[in-house]
Amino acid sequence: MTEKSTSVLSDLPEHFRRIRSFVRREGRLTEGQASAIKNGWPLWGIDYVPECTDWDQVFGRQAPRYLEIGFGMGGATAEIAKNHPQNDYLGIEVHRPGVGNLLKLIEQDSLTNLRLMSHDAVDVVNEMIAPDSLDGVLVFFPDPWHKARHHKRRLIQPEFVRMLVSRLKPGGTIHCATDWENYAEQMLDVLSAEPLLENTAATYAERPAYRPLTKFEARGLKLGHGVWDLVFRRK
């Protein structure tokens, strides 16, 4: 079942609609990942359609709902969904090996509260998610586009944050995490400038218990590398 969406894409500057925050670095699918996509996508995958989606129907229930943008190989996403069965999670990732890997984990852990998409997050948020419908948005370790000339490709930009906020319920949260200090500073500036958001911390937040500590992150912390979490709430 679908209903007419309230699109805000037409309000975005032309350059933002044209510039993408990702490139498809496909890599090579393993046999297991390819098999998981073949068998698991019809069960847990959601194809993009330019219409607002009835997510209660998709998940078969009414529950708190969270959107994760860029789940990578999906290990943290599967752990979060497994540890919080009372919530529903929609994960977006354009890297097919990651999609295949998370589909394997869904089957392995018998997860019923997780659905996946492999499409541009801007389109999905704009067209498929109704205003005031999400309890939270998770953006963990997005591509930092570390070269200054590529900063325009970073996902966390004022225009996209405004779109995300419009999809949050009052009291809903945006939780970002990065291991690039420069990107953390930009995220803090962008999120702080959004008038409908308030910071839950003075600046950066402590890592919430629900965000798993990955092996890569733990190794970096031991080497003295920083990780910055930001948790903002819609007013």
TrEMBL record:
Highest taxon listed in the record's lineage: Bacteria
Family that this chain belongs to: Belongs to the class I-like SAM-binding methyltransferase superfamily. TrmB family.
Reactions catalysed: guanosine(46) in tRNA + S-adenosyl-L-methionine = N(7)-methylguanosine(46) in tRNA + S-adenosyl-L-homocysteine
One of the record's GO molecular function terms: tRNA (guanine(46)-N7)-methyltransferase activity
Family matches, as SUPFAM superfamilies: S-adenosyl-L-methionine-dependent methyltransferases
PANTHER family for this protein: 3-DEOXY-D-MANNO-OCTULOSONIC-ACID TRANSFERASE/TRNA GUANINE-N 7 - -METHYLTRANSFERASE, PENTACOTRIPEPTIDE-REPEAT REGION OF PRORP DOMAIN-CONTAINING PROTEIN
Keyword set, alphabetical order: Methyltransferase, S-adenosyl-L-methionine, Transferase, tRNA processing
Gene Ontology CC terms: tRNA methyltransferase complex
Gene symbol of the encoding locus: trmB
Lineage: Bacteria, Pseudomonadati, Pseudomonadota, Betaproteobacteria, Rhodocyclales
Species name: Fluviibacter phosphoraccumulans
Functional pathway: tRNA modification; N(7)-methylguanine-tRNA biosynthesis
Name of the protein described by the UniProt record: tRNA (guanine-N(7)-)-methyltransferase
Residue numbers binding substrate: 147, 179, 214-217
Membrane spanning stretches: none
Pfam families (alphabetical): Methyltransf_4
Keyword field contains Cytoplasm: no
Positions annotated to bind S-adenosyl-L-methionine: 68, 93, 120, 143
HAMAP family in the record: tRNA_methyltr_TrmB
Xref: CDD domains: AdoMet_MTases
EC numbers for this chain: 2.1.1.33
Gene3D superfamilies tied to this protein: Vaccinia Virus protein VP39
Biological role stated in the UniProt entry: Catalyzes the formation of N(7)-methylguanine at position 46 (m7G46) in tRNA.
